[in-house]
Amino acid sequence: MHEVSLIESVVAIVIDERRRQKFTRVRTIRLQVGALGHAEPDALQFCFDAVTCGTIAEGATLIIEMTEGKGSCSACRLVVAIEDRFSVCPICGNFDVQMVAGDELRVMEMEVE
Description:
Elements: H1 3-21, E1 26-34, H2 41-52, E2 61-67, E3 69-73, E4 79-82, E5 97-101, E6 105-112
Parallel strand pairs: 1-2
Antiparallel strand pairs: 1-6, 3-4, 3-5
């Protein structure tokens, strides 16, 4: 379950930011998670409480916002919605579609005290 290591990375980001901003508590963490990134939102949520136990983020609320996959078609030159990394272009059927969005995992916002 790689979601544990992903949440550990999120906690590391929070700790680094605490050093810069000197806050004492994290109330909310908002993550952007790409639909093609192979991170399951339910698993991230499940791991969050265990991984944050004993850290500055203990007791915080995790908000997960999913983003859809998008790809750029080399034939019709459109950016199209894709459902997996190897999707064909839904417009022209071309197989050369380069993923341009959907595999991100970003800390977008933190509410802190």
